[in-house]
Write a structure and sequence with these properties.
Elements lengths: L4 H13 L3 H8 L3 H17 L23 E4 L5 E4 L5 H11 L1
Antiparallel strand pairs: 1-2
Amino acid sequence: MALNERQLEHIKIWQASGFSQTDYCKKNGLNNKTFSRWVCNDQELSQATIPSLIAIDVTPPVTLPLEHSEDLRLRLVNGLLLELPTTTSPRWLAELLQCLS
């Protein structure tokens, strides 16, 4: 529920006043439960309009021409050599390495 200008002004003044909601309502002739609902509605509306986005950098993958591509070689702790094509999914490789660790 959108709040009107009068309600928003009361909330703004109350926040700056340092009074409890109850004391503010008594001093201004407001119903405490109604005022509390205004404050809750204002908080919900404020949180709903804040986007929760995270900035990321997206770079295109490096691709080599087929004649220059080489296998990806990983030497494991036990001396074994793991060869994978360069087209291997980085996500899959990360999961594999996590399983091997």
